[in-house]
Design brief:
Pfam families: Sigma70_r2, Sigma70_r4_2. There is one protein chain. The chain contains seven helices and no strands. It is mostly helical and about 170 residues long. The chain folds into two domains: about 90 residues; about 70 residues, Winged helix-like DNA-binding domain superfamily/Winged helix DNA-binding domain (Arc Repressor Mutant, subunit A, Orthogonal Bundle), CATH 1.10.10.10. The termini are far apart.
Length: about 170
């Protein structure tokens, strides 16, 4: 077949199938812009196909081509998102605090250690278990073999101590 007959076949395929494919793509993708992109990609792919003259059912062939393009785009987008998440996490992991931030954190930790060192053992342990280890008060009570009410009282005592000594 000649180039003229190939371009005539493409033009006929486009004219006969453009309308329904565009509407289906708009409905499927929810965006006219994306629909137009996939529509164009579909016909470009068909133009480049070596099997263009052996197409038996043009509408099925065009539909299958568009569907594969949508699936490929979804896969590509998923991979891009995973890569961007990886980069964001990588960037977070490699972000080092400034010297000023490091010094400030050390000073706060020193101050907290000093304040907590002045506290009785059980209230200090309860405070650390609850706020650092994120253990619920009922679980702390079970672990220390004391009542939940005692855990609450010791927690209040520890918080008041920290508040009083931090001012």
């Amino acid at each position: 077949m000649t180039a003229l007959s190939a371009s005539h076949l493409i033009a006929t395929l486009y004219k006969d199938n453009h309308h329904w494919l565009y509407h289906w793509l708009c409905k499927t993708m929810g965006s006219q812009d994306h629909a137009e992109d996939v529509l164009q990609d579909t016909f470009v792919k068909i133009m480049r196909s070596k099997d263009i003259f052996s197409i038996q059912k043009p509408q099925n062939y065009i539909y299958a081509t568009a569907k594969r393009i949508i699936i490929d785009q979804a896969r590509r987008k998923k991979i891009e998102q995973a890569y961007l998440c990886y980069l964001a996490q990588f960037e977070e992991d490699w972000r080092h605090p400034s010297p000023e931030e490091t010094l400030m954190a050390i000073e706060i930790l020193d101050q907290m250690a000093f304040i907590l060192s002045d506290l009785d053992e059980r209230p200090r342990s309860i405070l650390l278990m609850h706020y650092i280890d994120e253990i619920p008060q009922t679980e702390i009570a079970l672990q220390l073999n004391i009542s939940t009410k005692t855990v609450q009282r010791d927690l209040i005592k520890a918080l008041l101590h920290c508040h009083h000594h931090s001012q």
